[in-house]
Amino acid sequence: MNIGVLVSGGGTNLQAILDACDSGIIKSGKVVTVVSSKDGVYALERAAKRGINSVVIRRKDYDEPALFDKAIADHMKSMNVELIVMAGFLSVVGTDLIKEYPNKIINIHPSLIPSFCGKGFYGLKVHEAALEYGVKVTGATVHFVNEIPDGGKIILQKAVEIQDGDTPQTLQKRVMEEAEWKILPKAVEMICSGQI
Ligand code: GRF
Known about the structure:
Layout: E1 2-7, H1 12-23, E2 30-36, H2 42-49, E3 53-56, H3 65-78, E4 83-86, H4 95-100, E5 105-109, H5 124-133, E6 137-144, E7 154-161, H6 168-192
Parallel strand pairs: 1-2, 1-4, 2-3, 4-5
Antiparallel strand pairs: 5-6, 6-7
Helix pairs in contact: 1-6, 5-6
Bound molecules: 5-O-phosphono-beta-D-ribofuranosylamine.
């Protein structure tokens, strides 16, 4: 399957997908384009280093959210993308894109959904909320994307224990290393191979 990855930042989850393509964890799909919602992010360099097509599509350049969605959908279609992976994409995608790719858009979220998810829960805020609540276990979730933020059907989850002295930063790093970079490539292969 041709994969299009949506990014907004450092792109370590994109890197995990690319590495999984090299190592054979992902053998039924390949990344054909990377779309960033921001200029100058490191994820774009990761794509360039591999000679992968990339483009910047910024919400602020469009008068309406629907036109932003259409721009992403048009680009993905022009690249023959069959699966869209949101890997740290900070803009919300709307119905116009979701309708074009039913059950073919997935997202990685850095908590065990339904905890610490939905509107306003992104980046470090998720880990701050987990520490503030005092949970002993957190983790990451890969899920299908529908109209409800972080509300689509869950594909994979992995738990990560919270340690004494964790800060939002140390927790974010461990959740990425122990959970996100493992379950995202795995979920991609499950979809590309037709297992789900
Ligand atoms: C990750 O924590 C991901 O779960 C969240 O945004 C972060 C992106 O990091 N949605 P990166 O750009 O993949 O390094």
